Q: What sequence folds into this?
């Protein structure tokens, strides 16, 4: 007589078979864990690239230019003031953007900072004497 029992229409595993099945499952889980570690590393690399290497695209650059133009116009509403001081305001605002984001050109603002840059432009105040 066999020491195997039929449970619910299925054969019950022996202790050795149970151990072998558990070892196979453990091996599979360990394989998945290794793949997860590799994926985490790749995600970290991509995040670093997004944060440091990707810059605003042409449409975002254009949106920033328009926001800068609107901000300068808001600050110099009269035609006379705009004609006399806009060049200085534009230069100061573009310079401030480069200083804040530590970039050689506003076009090099990191992609992840675009929304912040738009808000910065909207809140910017000219600090020099007009």
A:
């Amino acid at each position: 007589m066999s020491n195997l029992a039929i449970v619910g229409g299925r054969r019950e595993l022996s202790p050795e078979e149970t151990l072998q099945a558990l070892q196979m499952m453990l091996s599979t889980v360990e394989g998945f864990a290794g793949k997860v570690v590799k994926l985490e590393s790749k995600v970290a690399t991509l995040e670093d690239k997004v944060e440091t290497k990707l810059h605003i695209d042409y449409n975002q650059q254009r949106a920033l230019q328009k926001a800068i133009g609107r901000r300068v116009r808001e600050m110099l509403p009269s035609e006379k003031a705009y004609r006399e001081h806009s060049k200085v305001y534009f230069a100061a605002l573009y310079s401030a953007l480069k200083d804040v984001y530590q970039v050689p050109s506003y076009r090099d603002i990191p992609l992840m900072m675009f929304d912040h840059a738009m808000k910065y432009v909207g809140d910017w105040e000219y600090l020099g004497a007009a």
In short: The radius of gyration is 31 Å. Residues 6-52 form one domain. The chain has four helices and two strands.
